[in-house]
Amino acid sequence: MPTTPAPDAPRLLLMSPEDNCLIARTPLAAGERVTIDGATIVLPEAVPLGYKVARSALRPGDKVLRYGALIGSVTAAVAPGAMLHTHNLASDYIPTYTLDSDAGSFIGSTH
């Protein structure tokens, strides 16, 4: 993947050069043409404001980087320009707490 960002500004935002996703700066319609890294891409689906789109083709198991940080793993094949969301991306965040369903309190709390 090129290290020089070339998203279709002002509609797509690249947060960091190593990212493999872009952020929609405006709502994008299915079938709309955008330029990503010099290639013209026809968006396969509508992308709401603030959602992620794939910068390149991604395969299941690929890690997704946003702002240079790992945010998740791809769970299904994703075409360039396709939206990345819960239907094809699993979070890699480590939970900081869980709820104890029996007591209704946080596990590890002092209550």
From TrEMBL:
One short Pfam name that applies is SAF
Q: InterPro entries in the record, alphabetically?
A: SAF (IPR013974), SAF_UxaA/GarD (IPR044144)
Q: Which residues form the SAF domain?
A: 19-90
Single annotated GO MF: lyase activity
Keywords, A to Z? Hydrolase, Lyase
Q: Which Gene3D superfamilies match?
A: 2.30.130.110
Query: What is this protein's record name?
Result: Hydrolase
What organism is the protein native to?
Pseudoduganella rivuli
